[in-house]
Specification:
The complex is a heterodimer of chains A (423) and B (246). With 423 residues, chain A is mostly beta strands. Chain A is 13% helix and 49% strand. Chain A has an 18-stranded antiparallel β-barrel. A two-stranded antiparallel ribbon of chain A has the order 12-13. In chain A, strand 2 and strand 3 form a beta hairpin. Chain A starts with 8 loop residues before the first helix and ends with a strand. A 13-stranded antiparallel sheet of chain B has the order 6-5-4-3-2-1-13-12-11-10-9-8-7. Chain B is globular. In chain B, a hairpin with a 5-residue loop joins strand 10 and strand 11. Chain B is of the alpha+beta class. Chain B is built from three helices and 13 strands. The chains are: A mainly beta (423), B alpha+beta (246). The interface between A and B is large, with 64 and 47 residues.
Chain lengths: 423, 246
């Protein structure tokens, strides 16, 4: 439900103000209406990795270019209708500011004939994990992003049924669509199940789409004591896909063609598994540990091949018979390997976090390690929450062996600061 | 033989006294509860003001829906928290953040984190959750009080032990010492009564933090209505729906 882009960010802001003006009187007139406004400013700094195997193509990519993002967000509901609208102006190095207006969510919850329904565009996140969510088959949220923008919902229609200890939903996502660009844009039908048994939650999902066929998943979250939570999640797909580099025996033509820099590989019956748990203390400290296997993520050998091909392309630079633009284009296209949600096929996350019992301060350190290739990212962050203002700041660093996914990323480190004002 | 009969009579009498004491304490707690929440199901609008070294720090608004069977649903109403929901079903807790639209099961420890413990906001009665005995009489702020030493009767109570002071005259709550699992005194609660709909009710609960000496919290009960929600609303899977009556 992206609306046509107005000509400038200023137009977009005016449009959002107009929508807010339409909504806010409803708040005054109708006791049930409730809207809030948030302004968010995110500043980023990136340190590119000098001597990256992808240096020849970096000018054509967005790596390290993001500088700032200003978001205006209107969130709330009036009667059965819920809205989340955002207008964003973002700035990249060497480019004019770009504006975007998105209706992230616009849906209605309603009852008919004693049954409950939802229709519209809605965020449909699912699963019990933190770093990786195997059964998040509808929203397919990218995890572990730094200061991510608001999630954008999916056009959907659902029929929901609730019992004292359970629920089921039939969800038609992207009705009328077949296979689209990204898996979350595909048309699909899904059955979601939920059951509560004592101190445990059980979730199930069954989804059918043209791209993956049938996907079946289950997840559980258990609280065995006041301090400990354990969770697990499993997904089995009829078919899976992943982006991989060209085969090692690819021709020079293919190596220098941007469109064929990566291939989509179909995998039969891949599995995704996550195990994890959180321990929280009275003093506000918590430790989260998660291990996962993602049968659709690239393997260590894929990253090694990507590096070899980047080196082969770089070696062609300077040859009179090889246009530099072709090398740059194909190298830049090959960095789309990093766009996949999960770079670690066999991964582990350790998160140490602390919350000030007064609620003012919070701090965290996340170490994400790819067990297959030894690559890692370390993210440290602090947050401060005031009456209306929230401030976040953090640093992220990528490292590992030279041919590991996280070390191959063209960025060495990134820093961010976020200010959020709610009113 | 005579001594054995005498011993059995004495033991029976002691048990009867203990049972009577138990019944008396339960009855006292139920009378005290009426000053906090005089209905089984309802909605309580709550404003929580936190202070640091006596200086106002933050104000937070909550709408709390309560139902019998230890069920409560807390809707966060302040601008910076708008859209958050916390559901408590007995000893089980779920949090939903608006950014993810995904109910998250949390532990009792995680429930206690954050600004004002939502347990403090959502717990409006003692009668169902605590039992104990009267351990004496004391005068608190000039009010002669009965002193009760109470222990939580289920795992999920925010404070496993409470020493509660009820006015001798009408059994309204005057003060409570709230102890955490390690038996450390966490907070001291003082209760202020006001006239609500012609009836004496607790209008403000002041919590003085003993673990963080400079912090205190005032919980203001802005309104209590008998507005109730159907059982569906107390299902964790229902939290993702937005058709909650605000």
């Amino acid at each position: 439900m992206k609306l046509p882009r107005p000509s400038s960010p200023y137009c977009q802001r005016r449009l959002l103000y107009c929508l807010a003006a339409l909504a806010l009187p409803a708040s005054a007139a109708d006791d049930a209406a409730d809207f809030g406004w948030t302004t968010r400013l995110v500043g980023e700094g990136h340190e590119l990795r000098r001597g990256s195997p992808f240096a020849a193509g970096l000018e054509l990519t967005n790596f390290g270019r993001d500088r700032y993002r200003v978001e205006q967000e209107l969130r709330g509901r009036a009667g059965p209708v819920s809205l989340l609208l955002t207008a964003t102006e973002s700035g990249q190095e060497g480019a004019k500011p770009a504006g975007r207006f998105v209706a992230n969510e616009a849906f209605a919850d309603f009852s008919a004939g004693g049954e409950r329904f939802t229709a519209g565009k809605k965020v449909l996140s699912g699963d019990v994990g933190y770093a990786f969510r195997p059964i998040d088959v509808l929203q397919r949220e990218n995890r572990m992003q730094m200061m991510p923008p608001q999630l954008e919902g999916i056009p959907m229609l659902s029929w929901d049924n609730f019992s004292p200890d359970g629920a089921w939903s039939v969800v038609i996502a992207n009705p009328g669509h077949q296979r689209r660009g990204e898996a979350r844009e595909d048309g699909s039908v899904a059955l979601k199940l939920y059951r509560r048994v004592a101190a445990a939650d059980f979730h199930g999902v069954l989804r059918n789409s043209k791209r993956y066929g049938l996907e079946a998943g289950a997840a559980a979250s258990v609280v065995p004591s006041d301090a400990l939570e354990l969770h697990a999640s499993l997904l089995v797909q009829r078919r899976g896909e992943r982006r991989v580099p060209l085969a090692d025996n690819a021709s020079l033509r293919d190596l220098l063609t941007a469109d064929s820099a990566l291939a989509t590989e179909t995998i039969a019956s891949p599995r995704k598994v996550l195990l994890g748990g959180t321990w929280t203390t009275e003093g506000g400290f918590s430790v989260l540990g998660e291990f996962w296997w993602d049968g659709t993520a690239p393997a260590a050998t894929d990253w090694q091949r990507l590096k070899r091909q980047a080196a082969q392309r770089a070696a062609l630079l300077g040859l009179s018979s090889v246009p530099a633009a072709a090398v740059a284009g194909a190298t830049a296209a090959s960095t789309r390997m990093f766009d996949q949600g999960n770079l670690a096929q066999h991964g582990m996350l350790t998160r140490l976090a602390w919350s000030d019992p007064g609620g003012r301060w919070s701090a965290s350190a996340d170490l994400l390690k790819s067990m297959g290739d030894g690559g890692w990212t370390l993210t440290t962050a602090v947050g401060w929450q005031g009456e209306k203002l929230r401030v976040d700041a953090g640093l992220r660093r990528y490292g590992g062996p030279a041919d590991s996914a996280y070390r191959l990323l063209p960025e060495r480190a990134a820093a961010f600061v976020g200010l959020s004002l709610a009113y | 033989m005579f001594r054995r009969i005498a011993f059995m009579l004495l033991a029976s009498a002691s048990l009867a006294v203990v049972a009577a004491e138990d019944g008396k304490v339960k009855s006292l707690l139920k009378q005290a509860d009426v000053y906090r929440l005089a209905m089984e199901s309802g909605r309580v609008e709550t404003e929580v003001r936190t202070f640091k070294a006596g200086v106002p720090d933050k104000t937070r608004l909550y709408a709390v829906y309560l139902k019998p069977g230890h069920r409560s649903l807390v809707l966060f109403r302040t601008a910076s928290e708008r859209g958050q929901k916390m559901l408590m079903l007995g000893d089980d807790y779920w949090l939903m953040m608006p950014s993810s639209q995904r109910p998250l099961r949390i532990t009792a420890m995680q429930k206690l984190l954050g600004e004002a413990s939502t347990g403090d906001v959502a717990t409006m009665t003692w009668g169902e959750d605590y039992d104990g005995q009267q351990v004496g009489e004391e005068t608190v702020d000039g009010v002669p009080c009965l002193k009760l030493d109470l222990l939580g009767q289920r795992k999920g109570v925010s404070y496993p032990r409470i020493v509660l002071y009820l006015a001798k005259k009408d059994h309204h709550p005057v003060q409570a010492e709230l102890y955490v699992a390690s038996d450390k005194l966490a907070k001291l609660a003082r209760f202020k009564l006001g006239e609500v709909d012609g009836r004496k009710q607790v209008t403000v609960m002041t919590l003085i933090d003993h673990l963080q000496k400079e912090r205190s919290t005032e919980v203001h009960y802005l309104s209590r209505t008998d507005k109730t929600l159907s059982d569906d609303y107390f299902n964790p899977a229902f939290l993702v729906r937005a058709d909650l009556t605000q």
